[in-house]
Amino acid sequence: MSAADVPCWIHVALDVPLAGPFAYRAPAPVAAGLRVIVPFGRRQLVGMVTGTVAEPGIDESLVRDIVQVLEDVPPLPPDWLRLATFAASYYHRPLGEVMLPALPGPLRKPSAYLGKRSAGGPVDRLARRRRKAAEAATDGPPSQAADAPVLNPAQQAAVAAIGAQTGFAAILLHGVTGSGKTEVYLHAVAQALARGRQALLLVPEINLTPQLQQALVGRLQAIAGPHGVAVLHSGLAEGERLAAWLAVVRGEARVVLGTRLSLLTPVPELGLIVVDEEHDTSYKQQEGLRYSARDLAVWRARDIGVPVVLGSATPSLETWHNAERGHYLRLALPARAVAATPPDMRLLDTRNVRLQEGMAPALLDAIEARLAQRQQVLVFLNRRGYAPVLNCTACGWVSGCQHCSAYLVLHRARVGSVLRCHHCGAHERVPRSCPDCGNQDLQPMGRGTQRVEEVLAERFPEARVARIDADSTRLKGSAERLFAQVHAGEVDILIGTQMVAKGHDFRNLGLVGVLNADAMLFSQDFRAPERLFAQLMQVAGRAGRHTGGSEVIIQTGYPEQAVYQALVRHDYAGFAAHGLAERRSAGLPPFAHQALLTAEAGDLAATVGFLGAARDIGEACSPPDAAVTLYDPVPLRVVRVNNVERAQLLVESGSRPALQAFLRTWLARIAELPAARGVRWQLEVDPLEI
Fold first, then answer.
1. Strand-by-strand arrangement of the 427-429 sheet
2. Can you give the CATH number for the domain in which 487 is found?
3. Pairwise CA distance, residues 130 & 108, whole Å
4. Does 65 share its domain with 202?
5. Residue 600's domain is classified under what CATH number?
6. How many alpha carbons lie under 13 Å from residue 314 in its C-beta half-sphere?
7. What is the pLDDT of residues 283-337, one digit of tens each?
8. What distance in Å separates the CA atoms of residue 545 and residue 552, rounded to the nearest whole number?
9. Which whole-number Å values give the CA distances from 356 to 269, 386, 587, 627, in the listed order?
10. Does any domain span residue 511?
11. Which of 254, 276, 383, 455 could hold 228 in an S-S bridge, CB 3.0 to 4.6 Å?
């Protein structure tokens, strides 16, 4: 038998809900990190080669031949393969569900390579389009490099400390809002580029990328080149993402800027990782592979031996705890970068105040005073729509969703008002009369951003009022246009949700008013106070970044609450100490480690029954020293979404290794449950919402 006749067995990871990897026969060895097209059932799929094996592990007659080896992209580097393997193991997902979704869409489609229209594959087609575009383009004047502001001593010390790291270091950059953390990032990235390395910058939301991209290009083009900054996020078209991804993988782009998905991008010469607003919950994926981009960033930096900078004015308590224990290096930026004092924080007690459309007279007077001074005003309300619910005053009917255990939210539109569910997306016209009693006097209850916009436009007719939320920014580029108007001074009053709370440098904002903050005070989620503090501190930090005398007014019926008192003192350290003490006494993260098994079915009894069976299995296979605790299954707060009933089961341990070992055994046993056939379930490690 010649060497050509000896079969070569390879393992391939596929994006399917099965453990894998899967054995295939190849005519010759295929390098790990290359993609192949393989048959899978009646379909053909693109998979990732994870290695060559001596034996397939199953009957050789059952092993199928690969269809094609794809070599338009070089083998992805070993460190990327290690990252994907760790993520799959830690979050207990199939390896293919980690690797394949991390690639641009065209690289995952067999149809892009097979058939008459493939034309050499997506990479070749992209190259031809770019050559034609380059031939047709005329070079404009080169962009001017932006001048770097002079760093203050605290910024200089932070830049020096980051630059002094010669291997892995996890660094918490704790700076008050407006302290110039972005300048520290820019200098740290410049240092990495000067050493011939690439840098990866993560931001929590897409709308934060244009501002930071402009700063990176303006400041670093002399080092990175005119096309040296690649932007990666889910809002890009497939061709845009493929072009940026290829530029990074080939080393042409020296700086990668993106949201959580960009953390899973192969960066062959990575020398620095920055996670801006590291506390933000947007870094946690909530479907499929439920990973934390922040936590994986720390693991990736440790694996390849480079620094990772975690920046925030309000760090997560887990990160703060790591810094307190000396596991992370803490660098402080205690003052604002420009000569502007922090805003004056005021708690407006609403218990004995007659509100006017949800706003206290003192807040309306403060808005009027700021407008008279030609300063901008931000009114923050983290609730979109016109009103949370429509109500019949005669019989008590409320606008409930037929598919969810939630209310339909009233939305006003140019073509008429609609009721929309924010959970399942169902929508319907507003009824002319009450469906139960026929009363025509239906009233909106509560207030959303649309209603506040309407009220303020009537109250201040001369002011230019704008609203930024998920509804007003649905179209591509709309968020950028709205923020550009605010920065250009074309907006006097801005009403916004959490989209406006972080990362934006409003130069003429003199007042921030916060409405309905108390809604988060009494949440069942133990992380609610931490989120509330971070949210309010971030939105307060938009005020007075370039001018003094700014103020933040928070309407509340509970001004004595510890969260609000710490805010007034600008005392994150005190808030963190109090929060960590409470969590230590209650045995909550970061002093415990958790996993959440969530199940859903058409019937709540089936859902809870499945989780009960899973709990029984867990009790049987848990370690004898009771290192793992399984709690009773409970329905979710919003139990029904789109006619599916949901429940969850919490697993907890004081030892991360013990929890991981238990989960591996437990999940294998759960998959064998007969009830699992009628119930969809998924596991989330280190859940952020319980």
1. 409-411, 418-420, 427-429
2. 3.40.50.300
3. 21
4. no
5. 3.30.70.600
6. 26
7. 999 888 999 999 999 999 999 999 999 999 999 999 999 999 999 999 999 888 7
8. 13
9. 58, 16, 43, 54
10. yes
11. 254
CA distance 396 to 390: 10
In the prediction, which pLDDT does 3 show? 47
How far is CA 266 from its chain centroid?
19
Tell me if 246 sits within 8 A of 267, measured CB to CB.
no
Token pair 């307190």 in the structure block, residue: 324
Co-location of 478 and 378 in the same domain: yes
86, burial (CB in 10 Å: exposed 0-12, middle 13-18, buried 19+): middle
In angstroms, the CA 490 to CA 594 distance is: 48
**Contact partners, residue 554, CB within 8 Å, separation at least 6:** 345, 346, 347, 348, 514, 517, 536, 564, 567
Residues 511 and 559 in one domain: yes
Q: Is 152 left (phi over 0), alpha (psi -120 to 50) or beta?
A: beta
CA-angle at 302, arms to 296 and 308, nearest 5°: 70
Q: Look up the domain containing 256 and give its range.
A: 153-333
Residue at a domain's end among 304, 333, 362: 333
CATH number of residue 60's parent domain: 3.40.1440.60
Total of domains in the chain: 4
What does the DSSP assignment read for 321-382? HHHHTTSSEEEEE-S-SSS-PPPEEEEEE-TT---BTTB-HHHHHHHHHHHHTT-EEEEE-S
pLDDT of residue 6: 67
In a domain, 672, yes or no: yes
Other beta carbons within 10 Å of 604: 16
Distance CA(333)–CA(182), nearest Å, equals: 11
H or E element: which one contains 174?
A: strand 169-175
Q: Is residue 99 domain-shared with residue 14, that is, in the same domain?
A: yes
438 Cβ neighbours under 8 A, 6+ residues apart: none
Residue 442 lies in a domain: no
- What the block records as the tokens of 212 is 């930071």
User: Identity (one letter) of the amino acid at 655?
Assistant: S
Q: Which letter does DSSP use for residue 104 in this model? A: -
Cβ-based burial of 190 (10 A; exposed 0-12, middle 13-18, buried ≥19):
buried
Asked if residue 410 belongs to a domain, the reply is: no
The DSSP call for residue 108 is G
Domain boundary among 105, 123, 141: 123
Same domain, 203 and 315: yes
Ranges of the chain whose pLDDT falls below 70: 1-6, 116-118, 133-147, 339-340, 675-677
Q: Per the structure block, which two tokens stand in for 198?
A: 């690439």
- With CA atoms as reference, report the closest residue to 298 among 199, 169, 201: 169
Same domain (yes/no): 606, 465: no
Are 300 and 167 within one domain? yes
Which residues are CB-neighbours of 5 under 8 A, at least 6 positions away? Answer: none
Phi and psi angles of residue 649, each rounded to the nearest 5 degrees, phi first: -135, 125
Q: What is the pTM of this model?
A: 0.92
